[in-house]
Design goal:
Elements: H1 9-23, H2 27-49, H3 51-72, H4 75-84
């Protein structure tokens, strides 16, 4: 079952380098995995210490999204027509 492949040394080195390159984890991901626990602890602490600021941000974010959606679907014009009537 073991097939023997005959190739020259240069090709074998190129294939090995290509396999190594494909298996290599990006630098940012290695850093992220190493520091993941620290980052999660930092985020948790920030959320606990800034609940009011986060709530205000979320309120503004969702309100602006809701307004954009209303304008995109044309509900804004309908409201203007009703208010002028």
């Amino acid at each position: 079952m073991n097939d023997v492949v005959v190739m020259n040394l240069g090709d074998a080195i190129e294939i090995a380098k290509e396999k190594e390159r494909q298996n290599r984890v990006p630098i940012w991901k290695r850093y992220y995995v190493r520091h993941r626990e620290q980052e999660l602890a930092r985020r948790k602490e920030y959320r606990e210490n800034n609940k009011d600021a986060i709530a205000e941000y979320n309120r503004n974010y969702y309100r602006s999204r809701k307004m954009q959606k209303a304008v995109a679907t044309g509900k804004g014009e309908l409201m203007n027509e009703v208010s002028h009537a």
